[in-house]
Amino acid sequence: MTQHNFSIEFFPPKTPEGTEKLRVTRAKLAELQPKYFSVTFGAGGSTQQGTLDTVLEIMREGHIAAPHLSCIGSSRATLRDILSNYKSHGIKKLVALRGDLPSGFGAVDTASGEFHYANELVEFIRAETGDWFHIEVGAYPEMHPQAKSPQDDVQNFARKIKAGADAAITQYFYNADAYFNFVDEAEKLGISAPIVPGIMPITNYTQLMRFSDMCGTEIPRWIRLKLASYGDDGESIRAFGLDVVTQLCEQLLEGGAPGLHFYTLNQPAATMAIWQRLVA
Predict the structure, then answer these.
(1) Is 55's pLDDT higher than 70?
(2) End-to-end distance of the chain based on CA atoms, in angstroms?
(3) Potential cystine with 100: which of 28, 33, 43, 267 (Cβ 3.0-4.6 Å)?
(4) What whole-number distance in Å separates Cα of residue 122 and Cα of residue 59?
(5) Which residue in 9, 136, 142, 185 is the catalytic one?
(6) 10 with 266: CB under 8 angstroms?
């Protein structure tokens, strides 16, 4: 695993208690020696300062950190300032995403914004900063929920890579075939950039269903039924989830995936347990 592009994602905490909790989580996960940590950027940049604060703290601890940067609802001037600030702190890696508008914004705001798609953000970053940043972008093996078709979706992904992105991280999924099919379709379009699978550990059935409904991830029927059958038995849900996700990771790595990107939700236990099984 140490030879793969293994990485870990956090969200910026909003309270002093959350900040301290994340420090404890990060110390545990740092023992796994991931290639880097990424830190999310709220809708419309709503966690911008928290993202930067968390990234700088990670860097002070001696690790590589990559802030997420989204463009919907942001102006060129705002993003130019953010990029300049990141450069001044020696940040060299970004996760560039279209992002979501904050609640209360409508279609008019999207239409009137200066950026509409992530490939425009990638182009802007390259025009402003050249090769300073290593840029990761998003990919959607089961199709972005707003894409017109799978074919359009992979074309949209190709535009992001051709705009200057170095690599990609996928939305999480539980069907390895969806990932391998997406990689094959991207390669047919001449895309050779690494596409790292995003991994969501399963620890809470209700939470997983809510997230998946929002982002369009399919929970295979057999997994949904099994999870539902456990009711409030959290221990059984976590044990089953650990088996399912570890097997998925093994399939992906054996099939040639360049690494794994773990969506931790700022919790260390499940990611550490999966990792320990993979390296055993």
Answers:
(1) yes
(2) 10
(3) 43
(4) 23
(5) 9
(6) yes
Pairing, β 7-10 against β 261-263: parallel
pTM (two decimals): 0.93
d(CA 203, CA 240): 9
CA distances from 218 to 110, 142, 223, 253 (A): 27, 8, 10, 21
Burial label, 139 (beta-carbon count in 10 A; 0-12, 13-18, 19+): buried
Whether 17 sits among the annotated catalytic residues: the reply is no
pLDDT 10s digits, 179-201? 999 999 999 999 999 999 999 99
Neighbours of 95 (CB within 10 A): 26
Tell me which residue of 91, 67, 78, 92 sits closest to 11, measured CA to CA: 67
- Residues listed for the chain: 280
Cα 15 to chain center, whole Å? 22
pLDDT at 102 over 60: no
User: What are the tens digits of pLDDT across the range 210-255?
Assistant: 999 988 899 999 999 999 999 999 999 999 999 999 999 999 999 9
Round to whole Å and give the CA distance between 10 and 126: 25
